[in-house]
Amino acid sequence: MDLTYTPEEQEFRARLREWLAEVLPSLPPKPSPADWPGRRAYDLGWQRMLYDAGYAGLHWPVDAGGRGATPTQHLIYLEETEKAGAPYVGANFVGLLHAGPTIASEGTPVQRARWLPPVLRGEEVWCQGFSEPDAGSDLAALRTRAWRDGDDYVVSGSKIWTSHAEVADWCELLVRTDPAAPKHRGISWLAMPMDAPGITVRPLRTLAGSTEFAEVFLDEVRVPVAHRVGAENDGWRVTMVTLSYERGTAFVGEVVACRRVLGEVAREARKNGRWDDPALRRRLGGLNAEFRALWRLTQWNVSEAQSNGGVPGVGGSVFKLRYSHARQELYDAAAEVLGPEALDLGREWTLDRLSSLSYTIAAGTSQIQRNIVAERILGLPKGR
Amino acid sequence: MDFQLTDDQRALKAGVRELLAARFGRERLRAAVDEGPRLDRALWRELGEAGFFALRLPEADGGVGLGLPETVLAFEEAGRVLLPGPLIATHLAAGVVDGAATGEAVVTAVDGRGLVEWLAEADVVRGDATGAEPLRPVDPLTPLHRVPVSGGAGLIDARPVSSTGALPTASLTSLFTAAEQLGTAARTCETAVQHARTREQFGQPIGAFQAIKHLCARMLVRVELARAAVYAAAVTADPVDIAAARLLADEAAVRGARDCLQVHGGMGFTWESDVHLYLKRAWTRTQRAGTATESEELLAADLVSGVGR
Q1: Would you call A8 helix, strand, or coil by DSSP?
Q2: Which residue of chain B comes nearest to A373, CA vs CA?
Q3: Which stretch of A53-62, A281-290, B251-260 has the lowest confidence by average pLDDT?
Q4: Which terminus of chain A faces fewer neighbouring Cβ atoms within 10 Å, N or C?
Q5: Tens digit of pLDDT for each residue in B128-150?
């Protein structure tokens, strides 16, 4: 059990810190959340800066164009970029954390050469076409059909909660290629160009008022068979590769952010007098314990992944369950500190409180995560 | 950074588990409950011989010369099997009280809040036990006395680690208590899962029901979070980390035992089941070396002190 960093890791941290201090002041101002083209340009610009400095695809394997960094180096990267206030992965989220790693591990040499470099260089944006109106948590119930017509698949159906669909170049799309097969089989993973004829994107407004994601309608969209990653009808297995990446490291930077926000909430309470309420103080103290422990659990999971050759384990479900609820409790406490001002949408914490509601739903609801923990870790029988 | 157990730490943990399984298995636990609170002196000496009390004592002084992380692993195993006796007080007396290190002497201590465990069975009492009155203890294997205290004794000491690297007794007691709570929490989770796999109702194992699954999943999440916090606190020896570890380990043990009881249904409410023993011990430990309120206040103060990370 060792929480100290090796000289190499400290060196990596120092260089990164130096680079961040040098480049962050040169960033353009952040675009408004409603300005999708602006957000795309901003996020891709940041990705290009990472690429030029050699930080793009840090955790990707070297033969996929990445740096082949250890999980600990990736942890340091996420910690330092958050502390320095660097931009989030933003519109590059799906490309860097889902589609890229999936293509890197399952794609052919031609596919890797076609799709991976533009993600790393900040030239192309991906979106995720997994969920459907009737297939959310029960993802394998998806019904979007694809049938072969010559060298193409012809795709019809609809997807929903598709983040970045409005500005994406590519969609990692799950389709049913064999309707007769059992529901986990008969699914294929396709890379669909978002400018293909037959695609309609309808932005959805979230309860926070923003348009973070969209509904995507697919009417006989032609996707070349050569764009299928993995074997036909093997898309479920390919998808599980993707999801393990999503749960593995997606929240590391956010824990760092929550610890910062918690400190700000406490200082605000000191300023406005709410700190004198012992019940509220104790609540904030309890949250400090929570986020300290979540950070330790992150370090534990990262160390474990490192000893397993970098593969994220099921520990991600345990982490996500506790983290998503802790995040909601943090913003509830922030609202109590703010008092009536918590009802003002002009307050950053109010918007963050609203968006925190998605954390127990997105990337597998808490209820589904508990089933995963119970069945895959604890070995309880499957049932209804 | 390699925040995983080393091979030596794994071996130590396995060794302690083996020793305790052989000497204080489930049958011995039940027999001890039936016999009433009498300390097993032979077992105490065996623990002494195995180095349990002298783990952190330097080798030059006849100890094992290990650190806080190893000690925490040993106390976790003790917590798993509900090993009775003033284990922490005796461990903390090694090198100070003659015979403590070897298990020849049973040492207890007066807690800051005036509670004394195992007073009648102890050879040495650290602190002033004048006027001690026996309680009827909720845990059948933790006899308790209460000593009248004046003033606000028992606060967790928030002072930073001294230049000699020594943590205040209250912080050490809190850390080892958290380790015991972690062991109990892990054990109750396993017990609940085992029961859920085998107990059938409505024609299937109750573990197939989502309501039961979710109870068990919540237990595991609490255990794993507490584990990360307790191990980290053992590595950093930071009083704020210890307070956090203690809060989460108390929660994991107490709520875990309640959920385990719930999974056992009517069986869990009987004396024959072991579940009540986990819960009663977990409750008893929550009263040791500072309260949850004190931990939360310390953690709150850390948020605005500017020295916290």
Answers
A1: helix
A2: B217
A3: A53-62
A4: C
A5: 999 999 999 999 999 999 998 76
